[in-house]
Amino acid sequence: MLWKIALFIILSFVSIAGIAFPIVENPQAWYEFPNIPGLEENAKIIFFHVPTAWLTIIAFLTSMIYSFRYLKRKNLDDDAKAYSSAQIGMIFCILATVTGAVWAKFAWGAFWSWDPRQTSIFALLLIYGALFALRSSIESEEKRATLSAVYSLIAFVTVPFFIFIMPRIMKGLHPGSADDTNAGPVVNFNMNSSMLLIFFLSLIGFTILYFWMWNISYRSIIYRDKLNKHLIRG
Amino acid sequence: MESFLSNNAIYIVMIIVLIVWAGIFLYLLSLDKRIKNVEKELKDGVQNEK
């Protein structure tokens, strides 16, 4: 119960700070954010957009781990965990794409410009979209679980390339690209300590939120399957 | 208060986001509770049959 209260407080604080704290030229007080050239007020998206991309990775990673466990132990509960995690990952992947596109309209001038970051997340959406197409095309439970576990293992291999590597070695518009004048990897780009603190609080808060959503999701799938089997047998 | 809020619209956005977050949070809490109840019912039902 304690972590639920912590989650509520963390994300409430992040919402207040992320939206209302002012961006100024020379931050003096602890609640002031520095002005990042080229981003200005748009920089505040980092508290809400980056965590959605972060959760995409966490969720697909969890899905990969439980797919591996399914192949090892052949327990259908692991398949339910892998599947629900992939679902949440897909939701947050779409959210990252949409929030990024809305932001890009005002930062870059167009919703979509096939920036390396946009292209790579589009490829990721297609790859994981195929996982759901695969799942829905197989009737047998065990076969579906095995095939989608293998697919999920292979699909996750592409995630580090699409999220971390490709958008950083190519020139592009997204902060953190190879020719980004704000220097350095995305996380360090000219943030002061209070901005960094709220950014990491946001990541922590969203991660807890993910685990909660995942927990509710896989429990409902596991108990639905148990109930189904019970009804068929009974 | 009202004139302050209408001049600083960002605080209204903040209040709305907080309300949305509280709604999502309460919804998740109730979902969690509902599943707990189903789990309990299912366990009790299986034990009764045995």
Q: Which labels suit this protein?
A:
heterodimer, A: about 230 residues, mainly alpha, globular, B: about 50 residues
Order of helices and strands of chain A: HEEHHHHH
The two chains with the largest interface, and their residue counts, are: A-B, 20 and 19 residues
Mean pLDDT of chain A: 89
Unreliable residue runs of chain A: 183-187
Quaternary class: heterodimer
The ordered string of helix (H) and strand (E) elements of chain B is HH
Mean pLDDT of chain B: 86
Q: What about the largest sheet of chain B?
A: none
Number of domains of chain A: 1
How far apart, in Å, are the first and last alpha carbons of chain A?
36 Å
The tally of helices of chain A reads: 6
Q: What's a concise summary of this model?
A:
Helix content of chain A is 71%, strand content 2%. Chain A is mostly helical.
Describe the structure in your own words:
The complex is a heterodimer of chains A (234) and B (50). Chain A is mainly alpha-helical and 234 residues long. Chain A has one domain (49-177, 185-233). Chain A is 71% helix and 2% strand. A two-stranded parallel sheet of chain A has the order 1-2. Chain B has a domain at 22-50. In chain B, 94% of the residues lie in helices and 0% in strands. The chains are: A mainly alpha (234), B mainly alpha (50). The interface between A and B is medium-sized, with 20 and 19 residues.
Topology:
The complex is a heterodimer of chains A (234) and B (50).
Chain A: H1 2-20, E1 23-24, E2 33-34, H2 49-73, H3 76-107, H4 116-136, H5 141-169, H6 193-233
Parallel strand pairs in A: 1-2
Chain B: H1 2-7, H2 9-49
